Amino acid sequence: MNNLIKALLVAFSIGSATAIRCYQCSSQTDPIGSDNCGAYKAFNTTQNIAIECNSEESHMPGSFCMKVVQQSPRGFIWDGRWRQVIRQCASVSETGVTGVCNWGVYENGVYWEECYCVDDECNDAPKTVPVRLFVLCLVFLQTFFVAKILS
């Protein structure tokens, strides 16, 4: 009887565990003239369907979601700034922590931000707008002080 109860508990716990669902898109694969992944305008959750991370549809299997944003400094290319957004499942976080965003600036001035989260469909939009403004201020100050030191 004791073994039967243990077997039932294991069976129910395995059956109830479902994969996380994340949005999966990339602005690199958007057709010309469209912004399906939300690089320049708000991400449309009704236009995009979240997929299960451990299904065949997933480009990368995983247990949480990630969103990567890269943006050039103004004047980087002839028509101003470019932005790139990638939303997908992830299996490994750079920091080993989810629920946070990591950011930085490459040597060529391109700003990058990677966000990891563990809730279904959590890679749809930024949750911390004031932090993004703070980050942009820090990037501006860093650029200003580097230019002042070099001149």
From TrEMBL:
GO BP: regulation of synaptic transmission, cholinergic; sleep
UniProtKB keywords: Glycoprotein, GPI-anchor, Lipoprotein, Membrane, Signal, Transmembrane, Transmembrane helix
InterPro entries: QVR-like, Sleep_regulator
Subcellular location: Membrane
Topology class, membrane: Lipid-anchor; GPI-anchor
Pfam annotation, one family: QVR
Protein's UniProt keywords contain Ubl conjugation: no
Signal peptide: 1-19
GO cellular component: side of membrane
Protein name: Protein sleepless
Origin species: Anopheles atroparvus (European mosquito)
